[in-house]
Design goal:
By secondary structure, this protein is of the alpha+beta class. It is built from 22 helices and 36 strands. Helices cover about 25% and strands about 30% of the residues.
């Protein structure tokens, strides 16, 4: 893994190499809540940034106040937050020291004696460097031998700087997976501590507590505590596996801020106490990454967040308010089979605007492809019994059946109200879950299935019969280059679903048997058997779906084939568009289909309909539609038009990726950068032609996939498989 990491400064910039972690945390008081009153609330604190300035670090001043360093180039300002206001003073020594070669400022700390220490990267040599100085004095470049050492990864890449209470410099060496401690006097190494592997510079491995303690992430889920004055170990601190939180300490307790919320923990104790749930604050938002945290004087917290794609930072303050109920007065329940980032983002913001409301978002805990028939039957029983959530995400659910049974509220008036206030992709908003010109569900986002490659094969895919004719004429045709069984069977069933499944839900068994036989032949030509088995599947991160071929790169070896993809974001365009440029082909829509994401409906039996309607409307607000998430494209026109700007952002310019796919004995490598603004604009133009929702009733699909697998394995023939699928679908519809 380490050998595949690009050893360039550009890579570091692309990963938003910015703020240092934190300085000391003051001792606070434990909150006790036995009265049913009081909970933590979140408050925005406006950052004092000037035009062109970006945050370098957030720490704590010697007086215990939030201390922010921000700058543009080597011009740095010091901002201290006192009595609700930022006090500004310039840091002149950095610009004076580096006037001939301004560096990229990575991190900055201020010691108790006022000494300011700067970690930066030399833009010419791409080496990291240290310097220190004091306000009103001259700066000093530090000649640290460690930073000049050549390793197999080049010179050390330092992701974080920490200055402990003894003045020592702790450096997080990202590539070499360790923390080194340097003497401030001699710059010699005092300690060297191995850490877990960091997959980006944003993953901090160090935290400074009070009483001279420094915590280092030495094992998965374990921080080892060190006394800075002696480097002696002082115990361990448990962190939930997989949780990447920012830490601080008040001398008695340690605190972690992560997507799970604010938790309190003690040395040697595996149990954490949640002070604030992540769903109630900005830390739970998929847009935000906490990068620094400091405490106030009364178990309150200041947390600096990064919005990486937007290239922005935000500061939030968390304090305990004893005057409000410990639990909000109203509860709105939301249910979806799978997670949805846009809904998560909306919940965070909605609760902040409505402090008397708690929005509970529950899911099956499974991805769309893992949802079983039993999962849906259980949900159906709850809904038919008048129970269940107030707001439903209908993705993968039997929407037509819900409409027929009167389980969904008519949203036509709400939809018309939305479309009267803003401009949306009306075809997508109206066509997804409707009957008799009434709307029962609307997608918050959508994905765009695309087809690219050989024109003759594209024409052959227009119907089952045209595909049959093509295969009869070209029995060795690969169609999809190389592909696995799941992709071939799922894509073709999606493509020809209307030919196979009638409006009444009945299966045309002859057509289905014909399709299954075609799938078997195409799978043989596509060498599908090579891409089966645990050894192969676990070596890839495969996003399930009807349009995602795990070996789509095979088209580079089989240019007389076609490939498909499902584009959910501008960043998601990178690999398929890199291949299209190489092949000199353009993408086209697939039967004018779009894949609706977050199809939101309201339970007809809900007792909170007014609140549910307000939440649904909020999902389509500009604030939520414009959030930079990668789970789909917005249905609001203005937000959709802004997508092209992402391709021209600093984030996009610095971002690149490499894909390697093993096909037989050959490795296909693809280097990809962000798409061009023109390519994004052309894709957005395609989105305006999309009128047909992808149909995926998970029960029908589970039946089809399970039986098709048996057919492709050879345990039953095509006729029997088609008959079995038809019978099971009939039984399901009868229920």
């Amino acid at each position: 893994m380490k050998n595949r990491i690009k050893r360039t400064l550009v890579f570091m910039l692309a990963l938003a190499l910015t703020a240092g972690l934190l300085a000391g945390c003051s001792k606070g008081n434990t909150k006790n809540n036995n009265s049913g009153k009081g909970r933590y609330i979140e408050k925005d604190i406006e950052l004092p940034l000037k035009d062109g300035e970006s945050v370098i670090s957030l720490s704590k001043s010697k007086d215990g106040n939030p201390l922010l360093f921000a700058g543009s180039g080597a011009v740095v300002n010091r901002y201290e937050y006192k009595d609700g206001k930022w006090e500004e003073s310039p840091v002149k020594w950095i610009a004076e020291l580096y006037q001939d070669n301004p560096p990229y400022l990575v991190d900055m700390e201020e010691a108790a004696d006022g000494t300011q220490v700067v970690l930066s990267a030399n833009m010419e040599t791409q080496q990291f460097q240290l310097a220190r100085g004091k306000e009103g004095g001259a700066g000093e470049a530090l000649d640290a031998a460690y930073l000049k050492q050549e390793t197999e990864y080049g010179t050390p890449a330092i992701a974080d700087l920490l200055v402990d209470d003894s003045g020592n410099y702790w450096l997080q060496d990202m590539y070499q997976q360790k923390v080194v401690v340097l003497s401030p006097d001699t710059l010699e190494m005092l300690n060297e501590i191995e850490t877990v592997q960091a997959f980006s510079n944003a993953q901090k491995m160090m935290a400074k507590g009070s009483d001279g303690i420094v915590a280092v992430n030495t094992e998965e889920g374990v921080y080892t505590l060190y006394q800075s004055s002696s480097m002696a170990k002082k115990g361990t601190l448990q962190q939930d596996d997989g949780v990447q939180g920012q830490l601080c300490s008040d001398g008695t307790n340690w605190y972690s801020i992560s997507e799970d919320g604010i938790s309190r923990k003690q040395t040697g104790n595996d149990i954490s106490e949640i002070l604030m749930e992540g769903s109630m604050g900005a830390m739970g938002s998929p847009v935000n990454s906490p990068i620094s945290v400091i405490t106030g004087n009364d178990e309150d917290f200041y947390v600096l967040y990064s919005q990486d794609k937007a290239g922005t930072k935000s500061l939030e303050y968390y304090s305990f308010d004893s005057s409000i109920p410990s639990v909000p007065e109203k509860t709105l329940k939301v249910f979806g089979l799978s997670e949805n980032d846009t809904v998560r983002q909306a919940i965070i913001s909605f609760q902040k605007k409505h402090t008397d409301v708690k929005v509970e978002f529950n899911t099956s805990g499974k991805s769309a492809g893992e949802v079983s028939t039993d999962d849906i039957r259980t949900l159906n029983t709850e809904l038919l019994g008048g129970n269940g959530a107030d707001v439903l995400l209908l993705d993968g659910l039997p929407v037509d059946s819900y409409i027929e049974k009167g389980m969904l509220e008519d949203l036509t008036d709400l939809a018309n109200e939305l479309m009267g206030e803003n401009t949306y992709l009306e075809a997508i908003l109206k066509n997804t879950a409707q009957k008799d010109e009434k709307i029962y569900g609307m997608p918050v986002k959508f994905k765009i299935p695309i087809l690219y490659g050989d024109d003759e094969v594209k024409t052959a895919l227009e119907s089952i019969d045209t595909l049959q004719a093509y295969m009869d004429a070209n029995p060795e045709a690969t169609v999809f280059g190389v592909a696995d069984y799941d992709y071939i069977s799922n894509f073709l069933f999606q493509l020809y679903q209307e030919e196979i499944v009638g409006l009444d839900g009945k299966i045309d068994q002859d057509k289905l048997a014909q399709l299954l036989e075609l799938e078997a032949k195409i799978s043989e030509n596509a060498r599908a058997e090579e891409f089966q088995g645990e050894a192969y599947n676990t070596s890839y991160e495969y996003v399930q779906g009807s349009f995602n071929n795990i070996v789509s790169a095979g088209i580079m070896k089989y240019p007389n084939a076609v490939s498909t993809d499902e584009i959910s974001s501008v960043q998601n365009m990178m690999l398929p568009y890199a291949m299209m440029r190489e092949l000199n082909v353009k993408p086209s829509a697939i039967q004018n289909m779009y894949d609706p994401v977050g199809v939101v409906g309201i339970n007809e039996s809900s007792e909170e309909k007014e609140l549910a309607e307000e939440f649904v409307k909020y999902l389509f607000s500009e604030e939520i539609q414009s959030a930079q998430l990668d789970d789909g494209f917005p249905v609001m026109e203005s937000a959709l038009e802004s997508m092209a700007a992402e391709a021209d952002s600093e984030y996009a310019k610095a971002f690149s990726m490499m894909s390697s796919t093993m096909i037989g004995d050959e490795v296909v490598e693809i280097s990809a950068t962000y798409p061009t603004v023109e390519e994004v604009e052309q894709l957005m133009e395609i989105s305006h032609s999309l009128t047909k929702p992808v149909n995926q009733d998970r029960v029908v699909w589970n039946i089809y996939q399970e039986t098709t697998d048996k057919y492709l394995e050879g345990s039953i023939d095509a006729t029997k498989a088609a008959e079995t699928i038809a019978q099971k679908v009939d039984t399901y519809l009868a229920e």
